[in-house]
Write a structure and sequence with these properties.
Blueprint lengths: L9 H6 L6 H4 L4 E5 L2 E4 L4 E4 L2 H4 L8 H12 L12 H15 L7 E3 L5 H16 L4 E4 L8 H5 L4 H5 L8 E4 L13 H8 L10 E4 L2 E2 L5 E2 L2 H14 L2 E5 L23 E4 L12 E4 L19 H14 L4 H23 L3 E6 L2 E6 L2 H13 L2 E2 L1 E3 L5 E4 L7 H25 L1
Parallel strand pairs: 3-15, 5-6, 5-7, 7-10, 10-11
Antiparallel strand pairs: 1-2, 2-3, 4-12, 8-9, 11-12, 13-14, 14-17, 16-17
Length: 428
């Protein structure tokens, strides 16, 4: 019998902050990865249905992107450039315009606010307030927009908000689509309080929304709800910000998650997979007339990550010159949803939700979701929980995953769910 030694995590436990989280859920020390697989130092392989929380849409160490990066580094290309003009940035902007903006009829200016999603959101909120001269932002129940103070102020999770240590103001939460399970009509209340001078609601600068709330539990907004929201914002002179940090770059199928609704937001935030290779990079897109920044009014030391420009350009050229990836994501998404819907039909208290390759299996007992992820990890699958009480098993496999790999992961998940649910039934 082979004895499997526990990984040496001593230095992490001694020196790394208690704030670490994923390392607690997945007690392994990882060493290498490729495509949809990640390996620990003991040589065990895990199928990755997490993909860097959506930062690795094209998989680990994608060979096309890696080749472009290595060639660039070997040529002594610029690595750090602030907002200076560089060849790498020029090529990225030209490719982004050619492959993403122009085919969709979008005329956005591109701001590089810093390396992370919260940087993009902070810039969007600040810009909306500067343009409109108003301070309030409307956000939604279940929202997650980042961990810095401005982004936290429009985030719903109470635990994350409490970490700020100060009052989070100038934001007004509103119910996300289907928050009341269809018992209340959409937006009539919002429209009324906007127009009622006795409502106490100041006209907001902007509304910020995720079309699919990932951290909130894979809550999917209907296209008609998004269209109604866009129409309301337009008619009342309120800017619409779509946070596509996790759901952009093809996660739901099309490059932008809002394309399904046929809307054009005033401002869009992108990060995570826009860098292509997992390298830090973020964008804040805005309609040209909203670009009222003074030079240097919003900046950041690492807003010009040139290696990320290189891998981002390679990703846009490889995967977004035609519609093949978007079609593939929809097909694979149907495959995942069918498996989750089957589980929901077999066991009580489960429901399936999602769009494209962001899918979730919700449990009425949150402890079951955590148990499923633990069981799946032991069987060689990485998956995380999401939602206000971590009641949803959230699946974010790489968009480039093969159908065979997808089937393998779904089989592991199915066995994990069956094991946990049957154990619960036996205890009952």
């Amino acid at each position: 019998m082979t004895t499997v030694l526990a990984p040496d995590t001593t230095i992490f436990e001694q020196r790394e902050s208690e704030v670490r989280s994923y390392s607690r859920a997945w007690p392994a020390v990882f060493t290498r990865a490729r495509g949809s697989w990640i390996q620990d130092e003991a040589g065990r392989d895990y199928l990755d249905f997490f993909a860097g929380a959506g930062a690795l849409n094209y998989g680990h160490n994608n060979p096309v992107l890696k080749r472009a990066l290595l060639e660039y580094l070997d040529s002594d290309g610029i690595t750090h450039g602030l907002d200076m003009n560089t060849v790498a940035k020029r090529r990225f902007l030209e490719t982004f315009q050619r492959n993403i903006l122009a085919p969709r009829g979008l005329d956005y200016k591109v701001q590089f606010p810093g390396p992370t999603g919260t940087n993009a959101v902070e810039a969007a909120l600040k810009l909306a307030r500067k343009v409109t001269g108003r301070s309030s932002i409307v956000n939604f129940t279940g929202a997650f927009h980042g961990m810095t103070l401005g982004s936290l102020s429009v985030t719903g999770n109470s635990m994350k908000r409490a970490g700020a240590g100060i009052p989070l103001v100038h934001s007004t939460p509103m119910p996300f689509d289907n928050y009341f399970d269809g018992e209340m009509p959409d937006f009539h209340w919002f429209e009324r309080v906007l127009d009622d001078t006795g409502s106490g609601l100041n006209r907001p600068a902007a509304v910020i929304v995720e079309t699919v709330q990932g951290e909130g539990g894979v809550n999917v907004a209907r296209p008609e709800w998004l269209r109604a929201l866009a129409d309301l914002c337009s008619s009342r002179g309120i800017l619409l910000i779509v946070d596509d940090v996790q759901m952009g770059c093809g996660r739901t199928g099309p490059f932008f998650s809002f394309e399904v609704a046929g809307i054009t937001p005033d401002i869009v935030t992108l990060s995570k997979s826009i860098g292509g290779y997992g390298l830090p990079m973020a964008l804040t897109l805005m309609r040209p007339e909203l670009d009222v920044w003074a030079p240097g009014e919003h900046n950041g030391t690492f807003r010009g990550n040139n290696p990320a420009f290189v891998t981002a350009t390679a990703a846009l050229e490889q995967y977004w010159s035609d519609g093949m990836l978007a079609r593939s994501v929809r097909t694979k998404g149907d495959q995942v949803h069918a498996a989750l819907a089957d589980l929901a039909g077999r066991f009580d208290g489960l429901s399936a939700r999602g769009r494209g390759l962001v899918q979730g299996l919700a449990f009425t007992r949150p402890e079951q979701a955590a148990a499923v992820c633990r069981t799946a990890f032991d069987a060689g699958l990485l998956a995380e929980t999401a939602g206000p009480t971590d009641e949803v098993v959230k699946l974010l496999p790489p968009l480039t995953i093969s159908t065979d790999e997808l089937a393998l992961g779904l089989n592991i998940l199915t066995e994990a769910v069956a094991s946990v649910c049957r154990e619960q039934e036996q205890r009952a």
